[in-house]
Amino acid sequence: MWHSIACLYWMLCSLYDFDEYAWTPPGHVQESNVSTQYVYAFMWTIMVTTGNGNTVLPETEEQAIFTIFAIISGVLMTTLMIGSASSAISDLDASKANCVGRFNEHNTIY
Questions:
Q1: Which candidate, 52, 43, 47, places its Cα nearest to that of 25?
Q2: Residues 6 or more apart whose Cβ sits within 8 Å of residue 27
């Protein structure tokens, strides 16, 4: 998911003059190699989707819409991770209770 958002961010940024908007990476990054461009795009994605870092506010409607999409995606990813962890812990508790129940049955028989 982060990779896709980073690629879409770079695609949207490439429609603008990099030095014109603070929302885009610095102008020198546009002429850099692909790995540097990807690092900047991926860093922006991580900052926006996790709510960490100093995210620059969008300046155009397209930038705002895309940023909203990225933030909502981050919220959904966080919700999914928390829900999965909660479910896994619940399954462990149920498994443990089942083992304790069988152990107690075995002890009462003998």
A1: 43
A2: 17, 18, 19
What pTM, to 2 d.p., does this model score? 0.66
Q: Are 101 and 75 in contact (CB under 8 A)?
A: no
pLDDT tens, position by position, 36-90: 999 999 988 988 888 877 777 888 888 889 989 998 998 998 888 888 888 878 7
Buried b / exposed e over 12-25, threshold 16 CB at 10 Å, is bbeebebeeeebbb
Distance of alpha carbon 87 from alpha carbon 15, whole angstroms: 43
**Chain position carrying tokens 């506010």:** 57
SS3 53: coil
Question: What are the C-alpha distances in Å from 33 to residues 12, 28, 48, 102?
Answer: 18, 10, 23, 61
Residue 110 confidence (pLDDT) above 60? no
Could you give the CA distance from residue 49 to residue 31 in angstroms, rounded to a whole number? 26
